[in-house]
Specification:
- This protein is of the alpha+beta class.
- It has one domain: 2-Layer Sandwich (Alpha-Beta Plaits).
- 26% of the residues lie in helices and 30% in strands.
- It has a four-stranded antiparallel beta sheet with strand order 2-3-1-4, covered by helices on one side.
- A hairpin with a 5-residue loop joins strand 2 and strand 3.
- Helix 1 packs antiparallel against helix 2.
């Protein structure tokens, strides 16, 4: 047995580079979309905020932002997810 084997959960099903959509949800307040774009740009500098898809909830209390980035590695995605989930305005990241 190889002592340096990767666990099945460590294998990525994504081939890099790849376009990867990330959905971020939070309260529908002024500045939410801009704050999300700023975080995404820190981890994906080639992201174009003009391509962000915005969708308010039926009651207009929440806003969903879908950002499609050009993912270059699993580490990049992991770092972006950590930054988004720790942001005080973010409720959910998918």
């Amino acid at each position: 047995m190889n002592p340096i084997s990767t666990a099945p959960g460590d294998e990525s099903l994504i081939q890099y580079p790849s376009d990867f959509p990330i959905k971020i949800m939070g309260a529908n307040v002024d500045g939410f979309a801009d704050a999300i774009a700023a975080v995404v740009l820190l981890h994906a500098p080639d992201f174009d905020p003009a391509t962000m898809e915005l969708r308010p909830s039926s009651g207009r209390n929440y806003l969903s932002c879908t950002c499609t980035i050009r993912a270059t590695s699993r580490a990049q995605l992991d770092d972006l997810y950590r930054a988004l989930t720790s942001h005080p305005m973010v409720k959910v990241v998918l």
